[in-house]
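Archive entry. Fields below.
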Amino acid sequence: MQLEFSPEEIAFQQEVRTFIAENYPENLRSVQDEGHDLSKEDFLSWHRILAKKGWIAPAWPVEYGGTGWTATQRFIWSEELAAADCVGTMPFGLSMVGPVIYTFGTPEQKARFLPGILSGDDWWCQGYSEPGAGSDLASLRTKAVRDGDDYVVNGQKTWTTMAQYADWGFFLVRTDSDAKAQEGISFLLIDMKTPGVTVRPIITLGGEHEVNEVWLEDVRVPVENRVYEENKGWTCAKFLLAHERTGIAAVARSKRGVEKIKAIARTEQDGDRPLIANPFFKRKISELEIDLTALEFTELRSLAGEASGKGPGPESSLLKIKGSEIQQRITELALEAVGHYGAPYFRGFGEGDNEHPIGPDYAHRAAPTYFNTRKTTIYGGSNEIQRNIIAKMVLGI
Amino acid sequence: MQLEFSPEEIAFQQEVRTFIAENYPENLRSVQDEGHDLSKEDFLSWHRILAKKGWIAPAWPVEYGGTGWTATQRFIWSEELAAADCVGTMPFGLSMVGPVIYTFGTPEQKARFLPGILSGDDWWCQGYSEPGAGSDLASLRTKAVRDGDDYVVNGQKTWTTMAQYADWGFFLVRTDSDAKAQEGISFLLIDMKTPGVTVRPIITLGGEHEVNEVWLEDVRVPVENRVYEENKGWTCAKFLLAHERTGIAAVARSKRGVEKIKAIARTEQDGDRPLIANPFFKRKISELEIDLTALEFTELRSLAGEASGKGPGPESSLLKIKGSEIQQRITELALEAVGHYGAPYFRGFGEGDNEHPIGPDYAHRAAPTYFNTRKTTIYGGSNEIQRNIIAKMVLGI
Amino acid sequence: MDFSYTETQDMIRETLSRFLADTYDFDSRNKMIASDSGRDPGIWKALAQDLGMLGAAFSEEHGGLGGGHLENALIMEELGKVIAIEPYLQTVVLGGGALKAVGGAIADAVIPEIIGGNVIIAFAYAEPQGRYNLANIRTTAKKDGAGYVLNGHKGVVYAAPWATHLLVSARTGGSGSEANGVSLFLIDANTAGIVRRDYPTVDGFQASEVYFENVAIPGDALLGDEGAGLPLIERIVDEATVAVCAEACGVTAKLHSGTLEYARQRNQFGQPISRFQVLQHRMVDMFMDVEQSKSMTTMATLKLDLPAAERMAAVSACKAKVSRAAKLVGQNAIQTHGGIGITQELAIGHFFKRATMIESQFGSADHHYERFERLTLAD
Amino acid sequence: MDFSYTETQDMIRETLSRFLADTYDFDSRNKMIASDSGRDPGIWKALAQDLGMLGAAFSEEHGGLGGGHLENALIMEELGKVIAIEPYLQTVVLGGGALKAVGGAIADAVIPEIIGGNVIIAFAYAEPQGRYNLANIRTTAKKDGAGYVLNGHKGVVYAAPWATHLLVSARTGGSGSEANGVSLFLIDANTAGIVRRDYPTVDGFQASEVYFENVAIPGDALLGDEGAGLPLIERIVDEATVAVCAEACGVTAKLHSGTLEYARQRNQFGQPISRFQVLQHRMVDMFMDVEQSKSMTTMATLKLDLPAAERMAAVSACKAKVSRAAKLVGQNAIQTHGGIGITQELAIGHFFKRATMIESQFGSADHHYERFERLTLAD
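PREDICTED_STRUCTURE:
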């Protein structure tokens, strides 16, 4: 065992650091600093730079456009991205449908879809949840009925993140109504411009428009856009869920979040001392930091396991649970730190507002972010479901 | 609403205070101060003084030997007992079987048993739990078969507290094997000197001999010693459980416990300051103290509800849950406070030891008491069961 | 000891509860908040004139019903149950509280106007650097002839956009967080030199940054003695803190009952989610926190007229516990609802937002644990 | 980065694990503890001579296997899985650690004896007034010719009744909690003037109060430089702290697996209690804490040779987290077992007792959070 990076790894770290410093878009930086919402173009500008460099999909196999990096290199990469406070890339194509397509798709599907995911030309969204089925994914009711070379899809999806921008969506639909629960589900790729697809915004507690309802009325989807076998879509879904849970630990991003809290706590006053000198506030930071270290080394141990041949297994539920709790605690601490200035609400419903916010720059998004981040323990399989998974799959009870 | 005591109540408080000061046994005080175990005679000496005064059973109806005090007077009484650090009276007769007998018993049973409970001449124990049935009381297997004017009882009970001293025990036994679960159970009073009754010690983690196994082999119990109807013993058991839960909050005793922690924390050094100056240790004390106030006022509200006609209901589960958790936290804090001196173990298995203990006087029982107090969230219906009860009976889910 | 309500108190609760059920459903509340002024002034008028509710906590000689802290508490609890955005806390509890405490001509003049619904007061006390320290004040009130001249900046003044009067803490002497030199003024909100920047708050109210730029106010705007206002401020803030705890009891009770209701209806894996033991126990924990919040609020309400040290310890114990309860109940209500809980579409999320703001209003749990320790746990 | 064990390390673990499975079942352990000496000296001999285990962490030139911190950690973890009461921590990690650090003649003389199983060392560092502050020492070592004279009282010295040598911290200068003036000595446990009061500990070990009454010791008993021993003490205590965390990984893993096993067998209300969702989630929480303890222990083990400030921060992060995990896992193991968990009859209660003592060994969670903050979170 050893913790140190090899000389090659240190050189790689330097390369990454330089690349980010020289290529990260300046205007993106200022949008972030002022706490504004990012537009589709904001996200895509950084995506395209990475795509051009060939670094957009480090986790993919090289043959499909991956980088061929070791687990340690990927670790360095995410550390450096977080340290430089870069915006994340959208996971729906790169971390979700992409791996499903290169794992389960036909050669034609790979050729058709992977390039657009890598380049950013296709923006993807995920059609999983339904109003009646939250954590109970398998109870979904959206139906696809075969009609010649098409499926005709009818139903309603919800919590569809960023669907307002999406060119394509991957959907779980029921293709056999008689089969029960997880049987009879298929995995379809749907062009969001197809007639019958309607996207309606859902406004969340902080006033954000991130998620949507997607209505599907007699939407015709070519059979060639089904991934894997008919009625076997659950296989793709399970595979994808395990992948999603790993990313969801968000260690590097949370590290950056803790650093921001520290900066706020050094600025905010608590009586005649800076807030960080308040032993209880300081303790909350140290608890966060230590819990984050525990999560980080648990992820590293899990990556080491993967490197030695094991795929991401049900232990990844641990990363999801702890990672999401930490993300929530960070936002909770930020809200606590800003005191009275957590209250002002300065934002229209879904529209930007160019006036200068009330209170310090770091304050005005604290409450909305706190409210919004409640979602992390709910989505991607709620933390209750994750505990059920560990109980069943790891502990065997 | 008002919090103040009336002039009569203040006079009562003074009377109680004086009585305790003048009558509490001096030798008992010194046994307590040195942290020794109390013998049967130690418990009984104080019991008999209270019995003589007529104050042994404040919660009982006056006709059976109660004091006729108001809820406020009973509150004052337990506050003063705790403030003066008096030993508790054993609950098995006074709080458990006594109320069952005066509520469900025949005139003969009342005449036969209540005086001995009040005087302390009869020491009682409780035969409820069985090795196979912990929280699942209704699944008990000890059998009583009718034979003429007797029942013949066979089976095994466990966790029978202080059975080594007991003259009498109240037992739940199955009188109808075909009935299921809670049906077919009867409530028997058994003379512990009856042939076939065997008491075997269970030594708990701190080395204490408090609980026992009780083996019943062909034990003949006169039918007249059955309380209430045959096969309806569950009615008595439920009644008793609700009573037991109220007492179990132990607010007054825990208040005294918190005061002891404060005294320890003012004595113990933490570097160059007393431990109580450590902000985190202090915080744990204030959290305890505030939680205890919340429990106290919840109990007072519940008492006020009782005074206005409602009996102790399933809300008493709240008092059990929070009361037991607080008791555990007190012992946890005591162990934390004594630092290194929590480790020395200075006690034989069940025998006293007259050597001077290691470390400060308050230290040598800290770890055993902590270990032992894990029981409070287990017995009297585990806290999980209490939460089930609230969910079902209060929340209706 | 006595924990029962009087008939009048029961009547107040019933009347108010019925009125709010009629006027303050979720849609109506949304409409008020979305309106230009961010409120419906008709509600306030009705509370005053139709229900006589604004006089509940004032003496009969001022035209009230003769009540006090208990009446404030039960009114705030009812307001909490509908997350009402009425300025009762600011106008009656804080403003009225200060006036009752100082008495005299200003009380005789203003209290009847409060009761009549003609006066709305906003409490301008917090400053950007001061956090929850009531004495950390940089706003100055400089003696100028018979009057004073105010300069400074007060932050996040709830209800300021609606206010006819501002209750303002300022320094007539001293500096930093010194106790001496703090004074309290009740001034006309339209006095020249007062500049406001108004905004909505995340919990549905309206608030302002209030800037005083050489604001000339009369000498009789001073409440109590010059430079000795801190104990008065501490007292009314304690009263307001308990009132907010009472509001929290209403808010968390609704978060809990709403969650129960949802869990009974929502099916997952073939059964209502209320059947899952983990969720059952969670709802039990929420229940216990709601009950204990009520207990603490009762305790603190009954101790508001004790000597300052006892009052402060009781209030801090109450707020520390209630703040934590508001967090636990709010977070678990959302978690149990799942995705739908974090949309604007359901009332539950709005209760959660108010519960969240209550956590830190007049001091976070940590702030109050610390004050409790200073008062009761000497080294 | 590399998280894999070498073949030798795997072999050490397997050998030890097999040996302990044969020798350290619950009954055998109870018998050792109940025996006159409170241990079975044959086990120690076997560890040394049959298994070569005591040399795993020493260099080959001293006759060891050339290992270090990782070997200590994996041996301690295995010892934890059977709650062994062997003095490995005191003798090899602390005593051996100090000797490796100072080197020279004393190391050359004593280390081979440790490896051979002939030396048992007890670490006499804590004092009744000092709590977890390693520099708060009143025991004095006064220069006397070529040697020193020791006076003072060391508390709760684990393994002292078994020890051939005592590793003692004492003041050769300075006072209070001053860093300067602290020295470390390795002395013969039978030196005249050493008075012991022996007793068992709640977790099954033997320990002593050790009193030094004008104990004359030779000059070469001094380890390192006179008066500059604190950094050395801090280093070996850090190493020992991580070793105890590794032990905790073994202890908590067994608490968890034992609880799982019990829950699968124990029926209540007509089904195994492992089917109750609340208990399932609790066992998941225990699992996560065990896993995270392993992660932190790996992290800290790998950082033991970094510069002092980094090492100390890593060790404190590890111990803070592991202490809390030991509490959570231990308490929930007992709660899930119910009554049977708090009897002496089942092994689970004994694992719980050791886990409880580990919580505070070399500093409680609070102590280590505070040290972590001092090192990494400047105001």
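CURATOR_NOTE: Chain B is about 45% helix and 15% strand.
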